[in-house]
Amino acid sequence: MPAVRPPAAGPLDREGSVPDTAARRLIVIVLFGGVDLLDVTGPPEVFSLALRETDEAAGYQVVLAAATMDPVVTGAGVRILPDLTFEEAARRSIDTLLVPGAVEVDEERRVHPLVDPGLVAWVKVLAGRSHRITSVCVGAHLLAAAGLLDGKRATTHWSTAQQLAADHPAVEVDADPIFIREDNVWTGAGISACLDLSLALIADDLGEAVALRVARQLVMYLKRPSGQSQFSVPLAQVSTTRRIEDLRHHILRRIGEPLSVADLAAYAHVSDRHLTRLFKTELGVTPHAYIESVRVEKARHDLESSDATLERIASACGFGTVDTLVRAFRRRLNTTPSEYRRRFRVPQMP
Fold this sequence. Notes:
Layout: E1 25-30, H1 37-52, E2 60-66, E3 72-73, E4 79-80, E5 84-85, H2 86-89, E6 94-99, E7 103-105, E8 111-113, H3 117-127, E9 130-135, H4 139-145, E10 153-154, H5 161-167, E11 172-173, E12 179-182, E13 185-188, H6 193-206, H7 208-217, H8 233-236, H9 242-253, H10 261-268, H11 272-283, H12 287-305, H13 310-316, H14 322-333, H15 337-344
Parallel strand pairs: 1-2, 1-6, 2-5, 6-9, 9-13, 10-11
Antiparallel strand pairs: 3-4, 7-8, 12-13
Helix pairs in contact: 1-6, 6-7, 10-11, 12-14, 12-15
């Protein structure tokens, strides 16, 4: 990512500032080399549908701001033209500042967020002109570097969450939610979460009814709340040994049956203590926690795709009772099975 020249030191001169347009809510998306394409193009689509779904004459005006007016090459290789420069944007009254992210991948396929000091300086300036500050995906690293997340709870893409926490101890990093709101600062998780975050902003501005109409236009059947996990638990944990992979498949095949540490240890031909050590080393969790995560994942699928009763789902997933199912959902998803089904049930085609 080419370096972005930071703004000159000292306060900005707001005399003779560029007049705002008739749009009531000006949304400025930060644009820079290597930025994730969907982070930039997704939110404008969502906000444009909000304008179509309402009778409000004002609605939103979305603009792309960059260091210069030169075309910007995104991480996908697509060139985008900015609408104005950072300097020009800093003379506007901004309703929402949206900061996307960019990453580089090393030789071991590890993902690292790109954080340019000049860009961070401009983000800090623009944030000072903004009513609401948001980030998408690894854009949270730019907000954190600008000191905008200190003392706040925030999320980012799960692959860089540990780095965000290590680099910025003053930030309370939570890698699980789709998005988090702390006062006027919103942070979003993975790349596609920019759509969820945009819907949440619309709901905050125009109400849930408008946001739901926009979600239907986007064919987003699953309009996810902020507490929704950003990834599937079994997919999030990757093992490296054949023994653990075999155990995982064994658990999936028998998820509706009672599964104890002793049962799994006998199947793997190891001691109970060694089995627990294997799970801790390979998956970072205890056998019991992993089994519960798989059961919750299956229950989520059943709630989304079937009309089965909670009693039947609890039995099929190995929870035994509905009370146990409810406690697991509250512990892992901060919701109940009934509420989850209400939000995420996928309509069946006629």
